TrEMBL record:
GO biological process assignments: phosphorelay signal transduction system
Residues with 4-aspartylphosphate modification: 63
Name of this chain's protein: Response regulator receiver domain-containing protein
Pfam families from the UniProt entry: Response_reg (PF00072)
PANTHER family per the UniProt record, alphabetical: TWO-COMPONENT RESPONSE REGULATOR (PTHR43228), TWO-COMPONENT RESPONSE REGULATOR ARR22 (PTHR43228:SF1)
Keywords: Phosphoprotein
Gene source species: Malaciobacter marinus
InterPro entries, per database record: CheY-like_superfamily, Sig_transdc_resp-reg_receiver, ST_Response_Regulator
Domain called Response regulatory: residue spans: 12-128
Length: 280
């Protein structure tokens, strides 16, 4: 992954490490490349710094084995407050039990010591980008849900249909699939389906667009193709701004989030979901 120094300068980091030498060496680099770095000498200091500066923080980098409070305990406390801030562990240990526990805590990454600054900064930047994309989708769907609460009399019936969606994130995913402007594409960029909201905004019916290439409704097809390749290369969502053309030949520009789909057992991308933000 190529590191963009300008992007790093927009990132605020909480760094927690009990080893004085490692902390000093890493901090000397972090302070040069990141916007702001808060540093703690143990888990207790780390969680206090998090509570005092959580609105500023983009990512937490913490040692795993520390006195007073371990990295695991710190991550558990952080996730009680914020589900979306990325937490990256640094440790000299790679035992199976620790890896499994890290996965159950939804830890974003696991970097072994001795630390390589280029690898660590790449991991930090990747985690921050993913977090921002997830927050954007969550914010968009939650805003729409709140809007529906105040404007839709039949919201109760809709919620009844979602009784099997036990987790909050699953409920918002349901809303995104049905009430956010979205397009489902096959692996070649051919339109397979559009959401009701997309139809309302762009004035197309599914019959108008089904089996047509995505470039039939955008003036910049090359950028869409580029983002499709990027998404399958990194196997993650990518965000970008792009214009789309309505049935009335009007150009509308939105922020888009493109997700690769893996619906088959061969581990190859089977298609894409493209969601559009409510904010233009």
């Amino acid at each position: 992954m190529q590191i963009d120094l300008k992007e790093l300068k927009q990132v605020t980091v909480l760094y927690v490490e009990d080893d004085d030498v490692i902390r000093a060496q890493t901090l000397s680099v972090f302070e040069k490349i990141f916007k702001k770095v808060y540093v703690g000498k143990d888990g207790r200091q780390g969680i206090n710094l998090f509570k005092n500066h959580q609105d500023e923080l983009d990512v937490i980098v913490t040692d795993l084995n520390m006195p007073k409070m371990t990295g695991f305990e710190l991550a558990e406390e952080v996730h009680k407050v914020s589900k979306y801030i990325p937490v990256i562990f640094t440790t000299a240990f790679t035992d199976e039990e620790s890896l499994i526990k890290a996965i159950t805590l939804n830890i974003d990454s696991y970097v072994t010591k001795p630390l390589k600054i280029q690898d660590l900064t790449s991991t930090i930047l990747k985690s921050v980008k993913n977090s921002k994309e997830n927050r954007n989708l969550y914010k968009t769907t939650k805003a729409l849900a709140n809007e529906m609460l105040s404007t839709k009399k039949d919201y109760g019936q809709l919620k009844d249909n979602c009784e099997l969606l036990e987790k909050e994130v699953s409920f918002y995913k349901f809303l995104a699939e049905h009430f956010i402007a979205s397009i489902k594409l096959d692996k070649f960029g051919i339109i397979e389906n559009i959401s009701n909201q997309f139809s309302n905004i762009y004035k197309y019916s599914l019959m108008d667009l089904k089996n047509k290439p995505i470039n039939s409704i955008t003036p910049n097809a090359a950028n869409i193709q580029k983002k499709m390749l990027e998404a399958i290369k990194i196997k993650e969502a990518v965000g970008f701004n792009e214009k789309f053309i309505t049935a009335d030949n009007e150009e509308l520009e939105f922020h888009n989030i493109l997700y690769p789909l893996y619906e088959n057992k061969d581990n190859y991308a089977s298609g894409y979901m493209l969601y559009q933000s409510l904010e233009r």
